[in-house]
Amino acid sequence: MKMQFVMLAFLVTLSAIEFGFASPNTVPAFLWSPHLQGGNGGMDEAVNYQVMSAKDLVDSVFTQGGWSNILCSEKKVEQPVVDVALVFIGRELLSSDVSSKRNSEPSLVNTLNGLFTSSNFSLAFPYIAAPEEERMESLLLSGLKQACPHNVGVSNIVFSDSCFVEDGMIQKLSDLQSFKDHLLSRKETRKEGETDLVVLCSEGSESNSQSGQSHSERESISELVSSVEQSGSKYTALYVSDPYWYTSYKTLQRFLAESGTGNSTVGVATTCDELCKFKSSLLEGILVGIVFLLILISGLCCMAGIDTPTRFETPQDS
């Protein structure tokens, strides 16, 4: 019984360690459509609380989200027909930002919440783990080719210039207005039953300020969705914060850039910020927990090894 208690405590400690490492750098993903009625599982609303990789997310979008039936020509279903599959790849939200207003983008969260809850079909993935070696747009293309091995049923694929894709055959657009014009033109030329894939990658707030663009992620999503709805096209949409930007290196680089004075050379950090304090406290707690766990196991083993006599001999009279 005592050994079972020790194993239970050890498993709880491991789960706490895993959660502590995963939660600070996980990002959310939301899949929704006002024109679809349930995915492959037949559910109109679902939340997957598992911590998954970005590759597993892409696989889930094609399977649970039903995108394989929309984008693969050999799997296309007659009803319902989706004209546009929108993908928004952002850099502003962490998983903690969705449930907490601290250090979050409330306007972006509210926009996503409104689109998500008002749709007929919605699927949420709160915890997409970082780091990832590949960027989300590359994983999306790989997942599309894997889900549609024989023939991709996408009639037109468009990416923004800020997306990093190596396929030179893919058309790229420079700004939000170009996407709006493209959607309007495709509305006139798109044949019945065809589906377009439109991928918009966020350039980040620092890139927007340098290029003179003032469109935030919230504005880009709202304007692009409104443009699709006004054109009368049916759509399904996916928003995900790219885990690539939340690796340990990128996070450290971001904090160093924010603490810099504008020089190209960054000095050695001499202070410990909130992320540093969190990690140090977490590691300290883990080490202390391991020490106490070893002491507990050693004590139980020593107690189990004590062999106490069942009876004592009667002392002899002298």
TrEMBL record:
GO cellular component, one term: membrane
Residues annotated as transmembrane: 286-306
Signal peptide: 1-22
Keywords of the record: Membrane, Signal, Transmembrane, Transmembrane helix
Compositional bias of kind Low complexity: 203-214
Membrane topology: Single-pass membrane protein
V-type proton ATPase subunit S1/VOA1 transmembrane domain span: 282-313
Region Disordered, annotated ranges: 203-223
Compartment(s) of residence: Membrane
Main location: membrane
Name of protein: V-type proton ATPase subunit S1/VOA1 transmembrane domain-containing protein
